[in-house]
Design brief:
This protein is 21% helix and 34% strand. By secondary structure, the chain is of the alpha+beta class. Strands 1, 2, 3, 4, 5 and 6 form a 6-stranded mixed sheet that branches.
Length: 99
């Protein structure tokens, strides 16, 4: 999928598994990385208690910016697990949006 600069492509969570991700973290600031971790823990808690969806913004290995809406079932040190056992590496995520 080609992407224009600053374009965010919406993707269904079921299709995320077909993407590849960079081994580098998309966030370079330790402050931003900490905020992402806090937001993912909050999203995981919301998913566990109320099955609430969140917006997850992330990049693939080609630098394409994506957004998906899903319930976060778990957040570990390396990955976020979405409903349907879909994994997104935390290093690929730029932010989490709450409704």
């Amino acid at each position: 999928m080609e992407s224009k600069p600053n374009t965010i492509n919406r993707i269904e969570k079921e299709k995320v598994s077909a993407l590849n991700f960079s081994s580098e973290d998309v966030l370079t600031s330790s402050t931003d990385q900490l905020q992402r971790k806090i937001d993912l823990q909050r999203a995981s808690a919301l998913g566990a208690t109320s099955k609430s969806n969140v917006k997850i913004y992330f990049f693939d290995d080609k630098g394409v910016n994506y957004r998906t809406e899903a319930t976060v079932w778990a957040s570990t040190e390396k990955n976020v697990t979405l409903k349907g056992e879909v994994l997104i590496p935390i290093r690929a995520i730029t932010k989490v949006g709450f409704f």
